[in-house]
Specification:
Strand content: 5-15%
Strand order of the largest sheet: 3-8-4-5-6-7
Order of helices and strands: HHHHEEHHEEEEEE
Low-confidence stretches: 151-170
């Protein structure tokens, strides 16, 4: 071997941090190789001028620290990603809850507005019906006044008929008529409730139906159907138990029971309830005899 030749380098590549368990054996093998090569060389060989870098325990420890740092950084990144995911889920849940609360409030407001509108509609309808009733009664009074004037100028036979009818109206009721009149008068003072059928509150047709039921007679529930039953009679020829009606016979809006003596009993309205009134207080449009 030439004295100028360089001794081959026995430098070993560095191992990864994951193989640090073999570092002691590697270091010992390298040192032994260097020692053998030095003994085999000529005595006159020049000193080796190339520096051989050997792994040290310190550098291996540094690799271990780096691996730990990398692992810790990865774990921190995973934790941060998890935290961000949880925060996103929480924000989504809060947004959904807020939207559902707004939707529920809007629905509640809509229902409240609909109920308010329905109440206003019912009130307006009631006021309209009451106004129609008042107008119809005024018209009936006017017609009755005209009819009375005509009768006053009529024949003597008409006067005789009127006298006879006056005597008829003062007769005491008997049989089924007595039962109907007695039931109707027993309810005087009860309250008026639309749709009421007793025992302590009535509407007009509910009272008439119950009074006739007390005499064993079934009548329809609605005033228009009740006034369509029986035979039409004039207001000058009434008998106790006759059904009085206001409006047209088949489309009456109010009914009551004639009790004799020029009076009737009926469930008038929420203000008065069930009362007994004279015919001239609110003159009916007509009458029917069902008995």
């Amino acid at each position: 071997m030439s004295h100028t030749a360089h001794i081959p380098s026995h430098r070993k590549p560095r191992r990864s941090a994951s193989k640090l368990a073999l570092r002691a054996g590697v270091a010992g093998g390298v040192l032994g190789t260097i020692a053998v090569a030095g003994a085999a060389g000529p005595a006159s060989a020049e000193p080796v001028t190339e520096t051989i870098e050997m792994p040290t325990l310190g550098s291996l420890d540094a690799g271990t620290g780096l691996a730990s740092a990398v692992a810790a950084s990865a774990e921190a990144s995973q934790q941060e990603a998890l935290d961000q995911s949880l925060a996103t889920q929480e924000n989504t849940a809060l947004l959904k809850a807020s939207q559902e609360a707004k939707k529920a409030k809007a629905e509640a407001d809509r229902k409240a507005a609909a109920e308010k509108a329905e109440k206003a509609r019912l009130k307006a309808e009631q006021e309209r019906r009451e106004a129609a009733e008042r107008a119809s009664r005024d018209t009936a009074r006017t017609q009755l006044s005209t009819t009375s004037s005509s009768n006053d100028n009529g024949s003597s036979s008409d006067s005789g008929s009127s006298a006879g009818s006056s005597e008829t109206t003062t007769q005491a009721p008997s049989g089924s008529a007595a039962a109907i009149v007695a039931f109707a008068r027993a309810q005087i003072g009860d309250s008026y409730v639309m749709g009421g059928t007793g025992p302590n509150s009535w509407d007009c047709s509910g009272l008439v139906q119950a009074a006739y039921r007390a005499a064993g007679i079934d009548l329809p529930r609605i005033s228009g159907d009740q006034s369509s039953r029986g035979t039409s009679v004039s207001l000058s020829n009434l008998q106790p138990g006759d059904v009085l009606y206001w409006g047209s016979r088949s489309g009456s809006y109010h009914v009551a029971i004639y009790v004799g003596g020029g009076k009737y009993v009926g469930a008038q309205n929420p203000s008065t309830g069930v009362v007994e009134r004279s015919l001239d207080w609110d003159t009916p449009s007509g009458a029917v005899r069902i008995l």
